Amino acid sequence: LPASLALIRPNPVETTAEIDLTLSESGFTSLTLIDLSGRKVATIWEADVVKGFYTKIFVVGTLSNGEYFLQLKTPNELFAKKLLISR
What we know:
Blueprint lengths: L3 E6 L6 E8 L3 E9 L4 E10 L2 E8 L6 E8 L4 E8 L2
Antiparallel strand pairs: 1-2, 2-5, 3-4, 3-6, 6-7
């Protein structure tokens, strides 16, 4: 089962997004939102997890409209996917 940051829906996001993740290894995993300058602007999820499929809910809150990257970091892998916030 390969790891992936599979799907963000909807994208662009107005208020709330569902994020599907597949993890191929157990261990400490984090899902963060990074702006285009590389700054972490939100931590969506951090946990010591077992491998498998997860769906996480992300509430945009007061974040500004624009382009961001979702970053999924597992013990041995790093994934990123573009996320747009547009109200």
